[in-house]
Amino acid sequence: MARWLIGLLPLVWLGFGVWQNTLGANPVERMIRYSGDWGLWWLLATLAIAPLRRLPGCAGLIRLRRLFGLLGFGYAALHVVFFITFEHFFSWSALFRDILKRPFITIGLLAFLLLLPLAVTSTPSWMRRLGPQWGRLHRLVYPASVLVVLHYFLMVKADYRLPILHAVILGGLLGWRGVR
Amino acid sequence: MPFRWNPELGPEDVTPEAMFQERRRFLRAAAVATAGAVLGWDPDAVQAEGGLAGVRKGAVTLDEKLTPVREVTSYGNFYELGTGKEDPAKLADRLVTYPWSVRIDGEVEQPGVVSLEDLLKPHPLEERVYRMRCVEGWSMVIPWIGFPLGDLLKRFVPTPKGRYVAFETLHDPQRLPGQAREVLRWPYREGLRLDEAMHPLTILAVGLYDRVLPNQNGVPLRLVVPWKYGFKSIKSIVRISLTEQQPVTSWNQHAPDEYGFFANVNPEVPHPRWEQRQERRIGEWLRRDTLPFNGYGEQVAGLYAGMDLTRFF
Ligand code: HEM
């Protein structure tokens, strides 16, 4: 499936960067941020399908939605794996301390836990099995995205331009749903 | 020591000839021998001209691997040159440093505005290899070139009322374009208690890795206090004041519950948003334990005897 491969390009770029040592002085920081960014971007792309498919000739976009959602989850999972590996090296006690003590980690984990059931139930058989419940369940992507942007705000020290930009985009996408 | 240069620098990053000549004059006048790196980022020039002259090597050494010059000069926080950690190296050219003078005022017997040349003249330079621990949780080992701040302060004779030392960075949005936005309240300010300032480990640095400070590392004059988080080590200093009251400091003003006035490296006191028990040494994949006072406890813990360091963090 060629579409999957396009979604993997950012990962290939990252792998290349690690291999060639072009990720700068702090490659771990770059890997964590880059995977987090892509997780968020795929989620925003997922949310953008509903408004965009209303444009003339764009109805087919709906076929990309599941892929975008899964990519969002995939990059978020990578982000979490990088975090567990390089920030704590599987020291679970330190990890739990972190989750309890650092609100921005708590919020990130919450967002991840909301995304997890969505990824699991993204298959056609789960759609069939859940019936009308499926749509209701998948509305969890809204609070999950809000939590991700909040997570972004909480990690910043002083320069809020980028989280604000993402909040505005997310606000637009959710706001569109509200007024429609 | 092989020098490696930022591969992202292109022809447009080369210093214009006029500025090159200007800086060259400044350096000659300053009697700190030329450093090709700052002038034109030309590796051959560094090799040929050798950087700072007359530096006493080995004044303070450390049995740890130095962080390569490329990382030291391409990664760091200098919000006046952008809030990304790789921005300062890219915008560094904007920070023209000639002429440069420093105002020394407040509670001193001999206040005044001193040219950088006159400020530096009496002080023999020495190399000091220090750990540098950023409050964000990363660290480096850097061979600074500088001299004890205490030696400078003694020249201007603090009065008995001078209990703190306050520092200010240049405030000029033309040369420090990050100041066009009020991310922090400019100018950047830092401060030390007088006994911390007089401590022999506290230095004013003018160079690193045998050459004049690259612009992004705080040219031409910066503080280095190795047992405190990096934000205390203020860059591109234009003012040093002795004060009676504890001075206002930038990050403390921005978020008092996150950044204290003392900001001693302390693994036991977490930042409200992250742990401080460990740090990533630049160049390593996994984190290592953070040492109390960044490993300088033997020398400096006495300064804080009887103080509750969780309260005065
Ligand atoms: C257990 C769950 C999570 C943990 C432990 C976690 C951890 C982190 C950490 C440590 C950072 C900051 C990196 C730094 O300071 O350099 C960060 C930033 C970020 N995270 Fe997460 N995260 C989690 C969940 C998520 C999820 C589910 C998403 C999105 C789908 C996400 C998106 C982001 C974004 C967009 C950033 C900012 C990146 C940037 O600065 O460019 N995170 N996360």
Structural notes for this entry:
The complex is a heterodimer of chains A (about 180) and B (about 325). Chain A is mainly α and about 180 residues long. Chain A has helices spanning about 1-20, 25-50, 60-85, 90-100, 105-120, 125-130, 130-140, 140-155, 160-180. The two termini of chain A are about 35 Å apart. The mean pLDDT of chain A is about 90. Chain B is α+β, with helices and mostly antiparallel strands and about 325 residues long. The longest helix of chain B has 13 residues, at about 15-30. The radius of gyration of chain B is 19 Å and the shape is globular. Protoporphyrin IX containing FE (HEM) binds next to α2, α3, α5 and α8 of chain A.
Descriptive keywords:
heterodimer, A: 180 residues, mainly alpha, 82% helix, globular, B: 313 residues, alpha+beta, Sulfite Oxidase, Chain A, domain 2, eight-stranded mixed sheet, five-stranded mixed sheet, 10 helices, 13 strands, 20% helix, 22% strand, disordered N terminus, binds protoporphyrin IX containing FE
> Which parts of chain A are unreliable, with pLDDT below 50 for 5 consecutive residues or more?
none
Q: Which strand-content bin applies to the residues of chain A?
A: under 5%
Small ligands present: protoporphyrin IX containing FE
CATH architecture classification name of chain B: Alpha-Beta Complex
CATH superfamily of chain B: Oxidoreductase, molybdopterin-binding domain
Q: How is this fold's topology laid out?
A:
The complex is a heterodimer of chains A (180) and B (313).
Chain A lengths: L1 H19 L6 H26 L9 H26 L4 H10 L1 H18 L3 H7 L1 H7 L2 H15 L5 H19 L1
Chain B lengths: L16 H13 L6 H5 L2 H7 L6 E5 L8 H6 L12 H5 L9 E6 L5 E4 H5 L5 E8 L4 E11 H8 L7 E6 L19 E5 H5 L4 E6 L2 E2 L9 E3 L12 E7 L6 H5 L23 E4 L6 E2 L7 H4 L13
Parallel strand pairs in B: 1-4, 2-11, 5-12
Antiparallel strand pairs in B: 2-3, 4-5, 5-8, 6-7, 6-11, 8-9, 8-10, 12-13
The site of protoporphyrin IX containing FE has 23 residues of chain A, from helix 2, helix 3, helix 5 and helix 8.
